[in-house]
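Task: sequence design from structure.
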């Protein structure tokens, strides 16, 4: 009996700390005019997802420039079986928008995305900002509920978009970036943030939830998303679909706080539990990332920036 109890406790502990993550990409189809053009980015990204057996992911789309090559790129993601979801029409900052104007922007995207067979009524707030007043927060909650939308929260935050900006800045200046060094830097930064928020969830939930990783549809993602998947698996993570991730009970959580800057669902829970500081990991700092990028990726070439 004692051995059975011990075995059950081990299983329970393992399950409570099972590490699962879904991959999601914001700002699709994002501007592509640097290292890759749009079609090359899409081809490379889709190939990486397939080659590394990532499975289904979600692309959260902005629709204000959904035409020509950008339309074809988003169509390629949908045709590959990936989820297309709503990230607004013009990517507005809710903190600076009136409620009705913001709703109208989200509605415009909803109308544009209905043509995609894999479209799901999932909405991700641009900048993760969900309303800086009670009226705006509650107004959007009501709108999303009324329209049958899921608030497609994230749990694992990062500044991958800023690493992309640093990379593209170097490319634009004609600096030859060592992709092996960039890969190492990218993986180190991403894994550090993932581990931080997973530990924060264990602290405040007592378990590792089904995580949702925020990324962006960008060149560095197309370059390294397969490496990220492999690294996570080597560290004991499983990659799941976004649909599976949103079955976690934290999908039903609604913060009672009004957060001008939202750190993600785990940050919300931690904040409501009294954890008011360090909701953004140190890797979510532009100055820190620039200094590290110049030192770890560019080295002597940094003097040209």
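Answer:
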């Amino acid at each position: 009996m004692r051995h059975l109890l011990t075995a059950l406790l081990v299983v329970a502990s393992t399950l409570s700390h099972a590490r699962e993550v879904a991959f999601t990409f914001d700002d699709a189809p994002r501007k592509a005019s640097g290292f890759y053009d749009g079609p090359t980015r899409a081809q490379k990204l889709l190939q990486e997802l397939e080659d590394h057996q990532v499975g289904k992911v979600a692309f959260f789309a902005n629709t204000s420039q959904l035409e020509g090559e950008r339309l074809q790129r988003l169509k390629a993601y949908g045709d590959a079986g990936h989820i297309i979801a709503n990230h607004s029409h013009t990517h507005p900052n809710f903190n600076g928008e009136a409620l009705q104007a913001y709703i109208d922007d989200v509605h415009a995207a909803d109308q544009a995305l209905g043509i995609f067979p894999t479209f799901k009524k999932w909405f991700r707030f641009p900048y993760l900002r969900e309303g800086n007043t009670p009226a705006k927060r509650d107004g959007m909650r009501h709108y999303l509920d009324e329209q049958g939308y899921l608030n497609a929260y994230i749990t694992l935050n990062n500044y991958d978009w800023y690493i992309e900006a640093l990379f593209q800045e170097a490319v634009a200046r004609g600096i030859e970036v060592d992709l092996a060094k960039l890969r190492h830097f990218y993986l180190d930064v991403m894994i550090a943030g993932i581990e931080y928020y997973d530990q924060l969830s264990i602290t405040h939930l007592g378990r590792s939830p089904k995580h949702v990783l925020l990324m962006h549809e960008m060149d560095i993602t197309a370059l390294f998303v397969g490496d990220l998947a492999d690294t996570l698996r080597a560290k004991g993570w499983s990659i799941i679909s976004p649909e599976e991730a949103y079955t976690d009970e934290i999908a039903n959580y609604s913060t009672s706080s009004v957060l001008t800057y939202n750190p993600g669902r785990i940050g919300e829970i931690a904040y409501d539990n009294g954890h008011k500081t360090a909701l953004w990991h140190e890797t979510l700092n532009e100055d820190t990332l620039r200094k590290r990028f110049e030192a770890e990726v560019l080295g002597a070439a940094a003097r040209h920036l």
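The first helix runs from residue 2 to 16.
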